[in-house]
Amino acid sequence: MTIRASLTKRLSRLFGLAALTCALSLPATAQQSPFAAAVTVNGRAVTYYEIDQRVAFMQLLNAPGNLPERAREALIDERLQRQVGDRLGLTATPDQIADGMEEFAARADMDTEAFIRALADEGISAQTFRDFVAAGQTWRNVVRDRFGGRITITEDEIDRALTLATSPDGAQINFAELVIPVTPQTAEEVRLRITQLSETLDGSIGGFSAAAREFSAAGSARNGGGIGWRPLSAIPPQLRTILLPLPIGGVTEPVPLGNAVAIFQLRGLEESDFVTPDITAVTYAEVLIPGGQAAQAEAAALRDELDTCNDLYGVRPGGFTLNEDVPVGQVPGDIAVELARLDANEVSMSLTRAGGSQLLFVMLCSRATELPEGGRDQVREQLFQQRIGGYANGYLAELRADAIIDATP
User: Fold this and answer.
1) Cβ count near 74 (within 10 Å)
2) Which of 221, 272, 348, 409 could form a disulfide linkage to 362, CB 3.0–4.6 angstroms apart?
């Protein structure tokens, strides 16, 4: 892989193009000296050379949109940010700039020197990188000094953020399944078939969907095996472990699920900026209904009578099993997969027991969550950054409104 391809892949993945393009910058015309002023901001020039350099940086990252326009506006913002930093005595120190450069490079899995060499190979100077970081560090000093004392993050706000982190607005995963029942008589045949499917369907979303419709015994078969988007924290750890390393379209090796075996395909992953609580345990109810899949009508009638798991005490007293606070790693594999697609008080009617002669009705009652160590402090800082970012955007808009910005004809 070339330096350009490697660097582009790392930075676009780790920083996000939107975050980078907001600080980058309009190519010089052939008629102008590269060191002539393309635009002045309160009397301070932004040269064509600076703009060309920033555009090269943006191109390295495959940034979308109108690069000259976005770059020009970004460098105007940087001039304003550094001007107010100079005026308030809050200009970034050499140590702050060095730390910022090191942090930026580290996110691309490089040290500062290696990062600068990689940029130089693309014709981008170290000064361009330094100026970019210096403006950002200075602006951070300004907004923290001006607005930091106004922001208080309450415990209730942290609780609300954590609730959202376990909702579909938090980190999410989109995957599909293909499930084939197994009996002692069919075990070898099923093993060979699903192993072959795992190999041949790897990388093909359309092929996986077609195979799921043809072979899968799960209720998702009619959707081509698609489970859809689910909170990442709701996925059983053992399934998360094998799904997350896959590329989009990648297929797992066969996964035993009790009386079935399955393969899974990763179809999407969206990360959240917030700390996501780990799901440590689940409470769920089981009802065995004679008749296997033929008992679907009875199971559907039971589902329609239930709003919560507690309703089982009145609707089916003594006819269900309540499994309370079961550690997620101890939930049987096929049940864990079913629970992963459920929200609280939803049911699954896809599983069977006793060689298929009994339908297993499963209802998710609740999930127990636990924050990683220091999780609340991380959420507090994330909320602080969101809040101060709002103040910063408003302040920058004021600076632009009051500035004298003259573009070279």
Assistant:
1) 21
2) 348
CB neighbours of 286 closer than 8 A, spacing ≥ 6? 320, 321, 323, 335, 360, 361, 362, 363
As beta bridge partners, residue 269 has 173
Cα 92 to Cα 145: distance, rounded to the nearest angstrom? 13
278, 233 Cβ separation under 8 angstroms = yes
H or E stretch including 139? helix 126-147
Cα-Cα end-to-end distance for the chain: 42
Q: What is the pTM of this model?
A: 0.52
pLDDT in tens, 104-150: 888 788 999 999 999 999 899 999 999 999 999 999 999 999 999 88
User: In sequence order, what DSSP letters do the residues of 260-278 get, joined into one string?
Assistant: EEEEEEEEEEE--SS--PE
Percent of the chain as helix, strand, coil, to the nearest 5? 50, 20, 30
Dmax (CA) for the chain in angstroms is 87
Task: Using alpha carbons, select from 183, 284, 272, 204 the residue that is nearest to residue 236.
Answer: 284
293/360 Cα distance (integer angstroms): 9
Locate 308 and state its tokens. 């919560």
Q: Identify the sign of the CA torsion 28, 34, 38, 41.
A: positive
